[in-house]
Design a protein that fits this description.
YbaK protein, eight-stranded mixed beta sheet, alpha/beta, 160 residues
Length: 160
């Protein structure tokens, strides 16, 4: 059986450059399947699959929110914690342009433009996180410690 070649995305290159121990977790991508489909395909708890959400504030300043796969972001709580009037999801084409990735394959690692990153604080308590590796159908498993070391996210409490 041939070993599957893992694509050299900017996210994978950044992880290797920072000597992060990670496990590539390729899976069969399902359009609009989200973390429910990836967790089912990989047979992992959806709570450990972390979504990378590109949002913007009322001044149209973009930001990334990392959230458990089976949770939603309270936009009202996030806006309050960031001391802005409003937070909204970015349009897909804008998110793609800002990150250099395609929606459904957006990774917080190696984005085209550096963006502030906010992370649901409970993610740091997990034993492992499984997060996008920069391509649809490719997640990477790593420790939350490494995720926080590389991204230096601001913790927030916005899960619903």
């Amino acid at each position: 059986m041939a070993k599957e070649k893992i694509p050299a995305t900017p996210a994978i290159r950044l992880l290797k450059q920072n000597k992060v121990k990670f496990i590539p977790r390729p899976y069969k991508y399902e359009d609009k399947g989200g973390t429910r489909a990836s967790s089912r395909e990989l047979q992992v708890n959806e709570y450990e699959v972390i979504k990378t959400l590109v949002m913007e504030d009322d001044q149209q300043q973009p930001l990334i929110v990392l959230m458990h796969g089976n949770c939603e972001v309270s936009l009202k709580h996030l806006a309050r914690q960031l001391k802005v009037k409003k937070i909204t999801p970015c349009a897909a084409d804008k998110a793609d342009s800002l990150t250099g990735y395609q929606t459904g394959g957006i990774s917080p690692f190696g984005t085209r433009q550096p963006l502030p990153i906010y992370m649901e604080e409970t993610i740091g308590r997990l034993e492992r996180v499984i997060i996008n590796g920069g391509r649809r159908g490719l997640l990477v498993e790593l420790s939350p410690h490494d995720l926080m070391r590389i991204l230096n996210p601001t913790p927030v409490s916005v899960a619903i």
